[in-house]
Write a structure and sequence with these properties.
Helix content is 42%, strand content 17%. It is α/β, with parallel strands linked by helices. Helix 6 links the parallel strand 4 and strand 5. Bound molecules: pyridoxal-5'-phosphate.
Length: 382
């Protein structure tokens, strides 16, 4: 049979408790309740960290953007797809993160592929990636022509060794996530920035989970150091969709001229770009959203039974390491019966024997939700 690996591979996933399937979310209301197959759950798996999705002012801005610019950009940015809404959003982001230039992409995945492929022009480029970097960074790096080395997670010493052993290359890039998606830990941004400088390397941070949440105005990793290149998706804390990349004028010009992901792809919806401006305005001024995440996260870690292995972090993401994938699935199923939606994260998303519950605590949760969550987890795991 043609392509008979398809059935074989899927069956193998099932046998390993790694099978994935889509669930349709039929939620219509605002907040952190989700409705799946007609049943309502408290959602602790969302990346809407600041609770901005469905915000009335952002929705209103979306409507205004649609009225002014249309929903669709109708072509690539380089043809006629680049609208005033895009330009204005880029300018807002530059000001927010204090960067010279910003470029919009249709997704964070595409932005990562674009960046690594552009900088990995040939073997003279050397990339140093944290081992726990997102799949899109890894794909981008390995699909480029650069030499790729991976350093142990958040291990500055290992990175230093790799850098000092390397043959001298004029084009070095150190890359990491700003806050890691699967354990919520923050990268050692200041050390990475210093190491980049002393090695004449550039620092690239993927701030998918930092933007909005980290920093006094939600500016992410750039709150701690001047990061050469930053990428962030707009589909998580920002509550819209698409992604941006900030960089120097030269790199901006280079990407516009050479990045296939940018050139051969339709520009993001100008209505969404317009809505995103409103979202960023709210992120900068509504400090209570970040304070709420911290307050509820502290409460959560205090309420968990002491034998539960919680990775403690300053972000919205809190991982409870279970280990075995069957057990992680069983705990997740038990919680579902109690009205809590908490996805079990299994290999290959995380390393073997590190299956976990990835709890996200958002600004639209409340104390009662957290108390209930902790009670149910304590019972399900103990
Ligand atoms: C979600 C995510 C992405 C992808 O962003 P999208 O806009 O969803 O494509 C990239 N990197 C990291 C670390 C992510 O968590």
């Amino acid at each position: 049979m043609n392509f008979d690996f398809i059935q074989h591979d899927v069956n193998e996933q099932k046998a390993k408790s790694r099978y994935r399937q889509l669930v349709c979310n039929s939620t219509t209301s605002q907040g952190n309740e989700i409705v799946i197959n007609g049943k309502s759950y408290l959602n602790f798996s969302s990346n809407d960290y600041l609770g901005l999705n469905n915000h009335v002012e952002i929705n209103k801005a979306l409507q205004e953007g649609a009225d002014r610019f249309g929903v669709c950009s109708s072509s690539s940015s380089l043809v006629t797809g680049y609208h005033y809404a895009h330009q204005a959003l880029e300018a807002d982001i530059c000001q927010w993160l204090n960067k010279p230039k910003c470029l919009l992409f249709s997704s964070g995945f595409a932005a990562n592929l674009a960046l690594f492929q552009a900088l990995g022009k040939n073997q003279e480029s050397h990339f140093y990636l944290d081992k726990l970097s997102n799949a899109s960074m890894i794909d981008g790096a390995y699909h480029s022509k650069a030499k790729v080395k991976r350093f142990n997670h958040n291990n500055i010493k290992h990175l230093t060794t790799l850098l000092s052993n390397a043959v001298d290359s004029p084009n070095k890039l150190i890359a990491s996530e700003g806050v890691f998606s699967m354990d919520g830990c923050r990268a050692k941004v200041l050390e990475l920035a210093q190491l980049s400088k002393s090695n004449q390397a550039w620092l690239y941070l993927d701030d998918a989970h930092s933007i909005g949440v980290i920093g006094d105005e939600g500016q992410g990793s750039n709150h701690f150091a001047d990061v050469d290149i930053t990428m962030a998706t707009m589909g998580k804390a920002i509550g819209t969709s698409g992604a941006f990349l900030t960089c120097t004028e030269d790199l901006h010009e280079y990407l516009i001229n050479f990045s296939r992901h940018y050139i051969y792809s339709t520009a993001i919806s100008p209505a969404i770009a317009w809505a995103t401006r409103k979202s960023i305005e709210l992120i900068q001024k509504e400090h209570w959203r970040r304070e709420k995440i911290t307050e509820l996260s502290t409460l959560f870690s205090q309420l968990l039974a002491p034998e539960i292995e919680l990775v403690s972090t300053e972000s919205s993401i809190h991982a409870i390491i279970i280990g075995d994938e069957k057990k992680a699935l069983a705990v997740s199923d038990t919680l579902k019966k109690q009205g809590i939606w908490l996805t079990a994260i299994r290999p290959p998303t995380v390393a073997i024997n590190s299956s976990r519950l990835r709890v996200t605590i958002c600004a639209n949760h409340n104390t009662k939700d957290i108390i209930y969550l902790a009670e149910c987890i304590n019972k399900a795991i103990a």
